[in-house]
Design a protein that fits this description.
single chain; alpha+beta; eight-stranded mixed β-sheet; two-stranded antiparallel sheet; 10 strands; 34% strand; globular
Length: 161
């Protein structure tokens, strides 16, 4: 299968700005290992566009950074939708994107020459467990004394419990 790679820049407000995000089209026959290796070769967070497995979704996206696969990535979703809309692969909005966290609603509309994209986000889970300053310092690679504000609020990302 022909795997077309589109090298995008997401959130480029000015020349030289933004975040690189390669988008790989027609990635259905790629293994996770191949996607991971391609992402390492790109050196950037990458998205792979596949046919959805769930009938209520329009596309499926898989997200990788050079070290591992991610369940969800807003940045790479926006890059992927931009590529698909600009190539007339997606022509209607809203759409539903299949991700490892589950289906995500995405809306897009043209605003002059710009494309405005809104991605549904899962709500975070706020928890009462407050880690020690030592634990936070270790995670941030700083000393506990360098932490100015305390306590911190513990928040689990969507999909974890």
């Amino acid at each position: 299968m022909n795997h077309q790679v589109v090298h995008t820049i997401v959130f480029a407000m000015e020349k030289g700005g933004g975040n690189p995000c390669p988008v790989v089209l027609q990635a259905d026959d790629l293994t996770a290992e191949t996607m991971q290796q391609m992402t390492k070769d790109f050196g950037h967070e990458s998205a792979f566009v596949l046919k959805p497995e769930h009938s209520d979704c329009d596309i499926k996206l898989r997200y990788f950074v050079p070290a591992h696969e991610m369940e969800m990535c807003i940045h790479a979703t926006i890059g992927s939708i931009t590529v698909l809309v600009n190539r007339n692969i997606l022509t209607t909005s809203p759409i539903k994107v299949e991700t490892a966290l589950g289906p995500v609603n995405v809306e897009w509309k043209r605003n002059g020459s710009a494309l405005d994209i809104s991605v549904e986000q899962f709500p975070p889970q706020f928890i009462d467990d407050i880690p020690s300053k030592e634990t936070v310092g270790k995670a941030l690679n700083i000393t506990p004394e360098e932490i100015d504000e305390w306590p911190v609020q513990s928040v689990l990302p969507p999909g974890l419990s």
